[in-house]
Amino acid sequence: MSIQLSLMPPYSGYGGTKWVAQVSGLDPKTVRQGRLDVEAGLSDYPRDRIRREGGGRPLKKKDPHLEADLLGLVEPDTGGDPEGHAQYTRSSLLTLATRLGRGCATTVGRLLKPLGYSLKTNVKRLIGKAHPQRDQQYRFIQRLKAQFRRHDQPTISVDAKKSELIGRFKNAGARYCRRADVVNTYDFPSDAHCRATPYGVYDEQANQALVSVGTHATTAQFAVASIRQWWEQLGRARYPKAHHLFIEADAGGCNGHRPRLWKRELHHLANDTALSITVCHYPTGASKWNPIEHRVFSQISRNWAGHPLRSLDTMLAFIRGTTTAKGLEVKAVLDTTAYAKGIKVSTREMATLNIRRRRLCPNLNYTIRPNQSLWTVSP
Fold it and tell me: Domains in the chain, start-ordered, CATH in brackets?
């Protein structure tokens, strides 16, 4: 059935489009578009055509060789894994459409999808070569930690969080509010008041953490100073009979297993507190098992998500306000000490440190004792 478009205007009032669609059997969208064309003076189509140029069956059905021609253009231009796990084409959809000579970029993208090509981003999944004794190290840490707890000795998890620019800068995440905060377009460090790095010390038994916010270099001295603050403010009162301290740490960074300065500063801490200090590092790529990562830092990031850290007081307030349903308590202190970078510890000085390494992964597991130890029984 056909209908003259010139008859549509009298029925173009309320309900007219629906009436014409029912009479003609056409889709209401088609009728509405036809009415708009008539009003725009575009009704003088050739009588031998019922569709405008480009309408009709899909291009693939019109040209059965189109897919083969497109595949011939794509295959020589395909790169990726020779085993076929990941392949990509170097040419854009617009370039392929131009070289193909028919169709548009959207059509080319639609035709490439059944061939296994689609728009994808990189997937972060590779962690490099795993430590040969990663599982043994993880089980050893859990056994040793349980042993310390049975003897009522403190066990802490330590790590440094990502440094943050303090000022009118965008903070990742979103929050419910009436009006969004207006922040700087660019994150230029020169526009910041300072750069702050939170270093956390987490007591898993007490579900309590102390976060020291440093405003200068994140060095091993800063890390050990944060541990010292935890012991003086929280640890000594909670563990009055402690003679041995157990520390879980990552393998890299300021508290990694390689820096000599980290071990020297821990030895100074052991001498000052009369504590023997056992350190166990998680292998590279396994830091997600460090309790402070998912029990403290993730909660802090969630708490200040979408809030610009305009000042150090704002950062400290968000850290102190971090809680969980299981009763996490977080204390925060500001450390403005200017820690020097590039401090070297000589081999001769390292030889004076009282360090005993474990047989399993000796680089990752070691105990530092004070020169005059007050403890009598080691867990």
Answer: 5-115 (no CATH), 134-368 (3.30.420.10)
